[in-house]
Structure prediction request, 148 residues.
Amino acid sequence: MRRALEVAVTGPDLPADGPAGVDDIPVGAVLYGPDGAELAIGRNERELTQDPTAHAEVLALRRAAERLGRWRLDGCTLVVTLEPCTMCAGALVLARVSTVVFAAWEPKTGAVGSLWDVVRDRRLNHRPEVYGGVLEAESAALLRAFFR
Prediction:
């Protein structure tokens, strides 16, 4: 989770204070392979790219799939600083990610236990293990500072 918090602040190619005029919400994601090696990272880039799907989780999934040459990410673990939304939770299920670890709960849009629980929906064909609240205080503090 500490690596995901680092990514949330710096991004894959961004300086710590970000490029001028870019004000993306600091959410970071790291995707680890079955062997524990880091496969890909993502940081919210919606404002940077003007892409509504450029959430940290989706970017990490895309980059990992490209690196591995396959869309199935079974055996992989996604670590993210904020509870995934419905889009991201759905993408995690579709990519067959085995484990999701997140820091701060998101009561307004969270889809991994707060508002919805997409990843544990028994009607879906895949349900990853979920661990929430890991380094929650650190992630929540980062988000509070951003919104101040």
User: Anything to note?
Assistant: The radius of gyration is 14 Å. The first strand starts at residue 28 and ends at 32. Helices lie at 2-10, 46-49, 56-68, 86-94, 136-147. Residues 93 and 123 are 12 Å apart (CA to CA).
